[in-house]
Amino acid sequence: MDTVNNGENGKGSCKMEISTTNDFRSEIPSIVDTLVSLHDQEGRFSHIGPEPVPSRISAIDIIKRAFRIIYPGYFSETSLDEINIKYYFGQEVMELFQALSDQITFAIRHDCLRFDLPCTQCEERGQRATINFLKRIPDLQATLAKDIRAAYEGDPASKYYDEIIFSYPGLYAISVYRIAHQLHIEGVPLIPRIMTEYAHSLTGIDIHPGVEIGESFFVDHGTGVVIGETTIIGNRVRIYQGVTIGALSLSKEECEQLRNQKRHPTIEDDVIIYANATILGGKTTIGARSVIGGNVWLTESVPPDTTVFMKRPELIFKEK
């Protein structure tokens, strides 16, 4: 009897739960109506219209495809040898061409339609920009090889080059930056920034694709590094975690006036910037071969061959 009663009670409970669920579900149509009526009201943002939207997922996939070409054998799922390498490159390059040209076309068409710009043959531009990028891959490989050597020479904890390629977040962020920067040079909208912000989300290293960075660049550890859009960095520069190379805080009006002007510092050749240093302002230049110590705050230029450091703080030791 007890079993039967429990079953009947259980059925009653289930019916009540179903009824309650239906009550809640019945409220959904009014919520949807509210969302539809207000989606573009009172300053809200929406992207509803004929403009094609570049895919963030596809942009991330393009990074992975580019890595498989720039670093052959490191990130592929199959082993490479002298027999299959030509087929490997052929397939990878063709697939990258299709994926990247599609996304560049979407990005250009998006801006043309969204901002009512004159037609610029977006599909042709997308394919031309992709071909230009593919032609630049050997140069990217050569530049990144110097970045890898700079990491090895600047970090005694690195055992060999493979360790750096596989595991260093600094090299990953720099690699993605150099890919995105080349697309930025080609005038590709949206996609370069998606790429560098993806690297930022993984590594904590924020490098705008518009930054100009020379050869043999090394970011050690890297977490918390910020390098703003109009920064210029020379050759053989080394920076550590927490470094900010940024712009001075601006009012809304000043921000509009300086949007397309130089707002970030220039770092000349062979400079070392230690952890948590902050260097700000478009007129600030750090001269060649200078060393900027940890926790330094700079808004003025430094001559070449200068060491800048904080005065040693007074430490107090108390016996328990």
What does this protein look like?
The chain is of the alpha/beta class. Helices cover 49% and strands 10% of the residues. It is built from nine helices and 14 strands. It has helices at residues 2-25, 28-38, 56-70, 85-114, 122-154, 161-167, 169-185, 191-203, 252-257; strands at residues 206-207, 212-213, 218-220, 226-227, 232-233, 238-240, 244-246, 266-267, 272-273, 278-280, 285-286, 291-292, 297-298, 307-308. It has a five-stranded parallel sheet with strand order 1-4-7-10-13. The model has no long low-confidence stretch (mean pLDDT 91).
Quick gist of this model?
The protein is built from 9 helices and 14 strands.
How are the SSEs placed, and which strands pair?
Blueprint: H1 2-25, H2 28-38, H3 56-70, H4 85-114, H5 122-154, H6 161-167, H7 169-185, H8 191-203, E1 206-207, E2 212-213, E3 218-220, E4 226-227, E5 232-233, E6 238-240, E7 244-246, H9 252-257, E8 266-267, E9 272-273, E10 278-280, E11 285-286, E12 291-292, E13 297-298, E14 307-308
Parallel strand pairs: 1-4, 2-5, 3-6, 4-7, 5-8, 6-9, 7-10, 8-11, 9-12, 10-13, 12-14
How would you describe the oligomerization state of the chains in this entry?
single chain
Q: What is the residue-averaged pLDDT?
A: 91
Question: How many helix segments?
Answer: 9
CATH architecture classification name of the largest domain:
Orthogonal Bundle
